[in-house]
Amino acid sequence: MIVRRGPGVLHLVTQPDHAALAARIMAVWPPLEDAPRRGDILAAIEQHDRGWREADAAPTVDVATGTVLDFVHVPASVRQGVWSVSVGLLASMPWAAALVAHHAVTVYDRFRPAPEWHGFFDTMTALRREHLGRAGGDLPALAQDYVFLRLGDLLSLAFCTATDATAEFNGWAVRLEGTRVHVTPNLFRTAVRLDVAAREIPDVPYATNDALAAAIAAGVPRTLEGAIAPSGRA
Question: I need a surface site. Which of 78, 84, 88, 99 has the fewest CB within 10 A?
């Protein structure tokens, strides 16, 4: 679950909805227009977080603070477990499955030295190797296509999380100002409209998971809106 804070409220955005927005963004990213594996890449972007569906359906709280746990702060067992599901759901598209396994390895790389993460990296590396073999590809080509997945992920996350930090990857920089996402270098030829469904609940401490579930059930559906300006425009 993505937890975006607003004045007195929290906006909860599911990981699959964030991923679908990432795919809509990258569908109009000019360098991807003529990519040989465009279909597989867009499928990987759109579906890379499908493994989060179960966790997002029952978000939890930190009982010590009453804070809603987002995708960064849920237990490691949850963060590790979703990726085999995401990869498995793409088994019929091995290149897309390999991209998602590579994404899992990449985004959690900082945890590689931790013993409790060794099994995760072994599993994801094995899945990446398996699906790469089925697709008849190699790791350098996968890494080249992965740039599209990670860039789309960062553009969508900047908007969905409303972070004020700049994210950098492979020469790209992504930041949010108000409701507008900026990417440098910017290759978009036209403005990209951003919208994602959210559930609005009060920004208060929640004593239990049941209290959070009740607040979500009573919550208000919202559509968060923004844009990415085309190149040459602020």
Answer: 88
